[in-house]
Design brief:
The chain crosses the membrane at residues 12-31, 40-58, 70-99. The chain has helices at residues 7-29, 37-58, 62-78, 80-108. By secondary structure, it is mostly helical. It has a domain at 35-95. Helix 1 runs antiparallel to helix 2 and helix 3 (62-78) runs antiparallel to helix 4 (80-108).
């Protein structure tokens, strides 16, 4: 019998996978021609934001996940090339945050007593 997973759990896994793919993409792009220390700093910030968002998704922390999504979204417009991977990651984080927030609110409400 296969275990059933909620949509929130699937999106949490997708958030971690998106952060991992973003990290792999940026590490592969780092040594390309035109390398400067500023690229290293930018990539470190972007990778950090990605893993903060993934941790927020796993730990069900709405503010961390939304903050990371907002940071990735804003930085994604600044650099188009890396924005191609940052914007989908931000979208996954945002959807995860919204869905897990709704799920946590329904779980934390006390049952009605008749």
């Amino acid at each position: 019998m296969m275990p059933s997973y909620s949509k929130a759990n699937i999106l949490r896994g997708a958030s971690v996978a998106a952060a991992a793919l973003q990290t792999i993409f940026l590490v592969a792009l780092l040594p390309q021609p035109g390398y400067q220390t500023s690229r290293l700093v930018l990539f470190a910030v972007v990778i950090g934001l990605g893993w903060v968002g993934a941790a927020g998704a796993v730990r069900n922390r709405f503010a961390l996940t939304v903050g990371s999504a907002l940071g990735l979204f804003l930085l994604g417009f600044w650099q188009f090339t890396i924005g191609l991977v940052m914007l989908p990651t931000a979208a996954i984080f945002l959807v995860t945050a919204l869905l897990t927030r709704g799920e946590s609110e329904t779980q934390s409400k006390p049952a009605a007593v008749c």
